[in-house]
């Protein structure tokens, strides 16, 4: 039974391989990386053949797998470009040749923004601060024991409320 499913998966994969290769090239912009992404995707599809629901859109399933692999690889690459400062505070530093200027207005703006964040209702503030701290939406939903859609909308509306409040502060200053 498993071999029959794997053969069907292999046949479907063969039929859409050109489309997947083109999509991988579009994602990566590099033919070598595109080929690696395609092969990783093909391997994942074949090893997870038992998770495919026959009768559903195979191409959509395969493209989703490819996109997820690409995103995960991108995130790993970004993490690899981070270095950890070994000072006692363990600050994270982005590698690169950026110059950071000290701008007093920035710290004032940050304090004002944090004041606005603190004025948000608790059910908006907590998910927003967790997202700001780098938590993923699903981690926030699990931590707060709320549905994922609720967390996404609360963060979205928290951002909108903050934008509006900050815009009002800036307009008051100009007046």
Automatic annotation (TrEMBL):
GO terms for molecular function: DNA binding; sigma factor activity. The keyword Transcription regulation applies. Belongs to the sigma-70 factor family. ECF subfamily. Pfam families: Sigma70_r2 (PF04542), Sigma70_r4_2 (PF08281). It comes from the Bacteria. Gene3D superfamilies: 1.10.1740.10, Winged helix-like DNA-binding domain superfamily/Winged helix DNA-binding domain. NCBIfam families: sigma70-ECF. Residues 18-79 form the RNA polymerase sigma-70 region domain. This is RNA polymerase subunit sigma. GO terms for biological process: DNA-templated transcription initiation. Residues 112-162 form the RNA polymerase sigma factor 70 region 4 type domain. Keywords: Sigma factor, Transcription, Transcription regulation. The keyword Transcription applies.
């Amino acid at each position: 039974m498993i071999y029959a499913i794997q053969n069907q998966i292999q046949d479907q994969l063969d039929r859409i391989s050109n489309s997947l290769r083109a999509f991988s090239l579009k994602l990566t912009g590099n033919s070598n990386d595109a080929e690696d992404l395609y092969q990783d995707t093909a391997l994942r599809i074949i090893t997870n053949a038992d998770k495919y629901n026959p009768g559903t859109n195979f191409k959509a399933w395969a493209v989703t797998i490819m996109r997820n692999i690409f995103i995960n690889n991108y995130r790993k690459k970004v993490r690899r470009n981070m270095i950890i400062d070994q000072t006692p505070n363990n600050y994270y530093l982005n590698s690169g040749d950026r110059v950071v200027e000290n701008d007093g207005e920035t710290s004032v703006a940050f304090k004002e923004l944090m004041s606005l964040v603190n004025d948000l209702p608790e059910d908006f503030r907590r998910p927003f601060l967790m997202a700001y701290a780098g938590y993923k939406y699903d981690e926030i939903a699990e931590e707060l024991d709320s549905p994922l859609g609720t967390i996404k909308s609360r963060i979205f509306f928290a951002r909108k409320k903050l934008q509006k409040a900050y815009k009002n502060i800036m307009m008051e200053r100009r007046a």
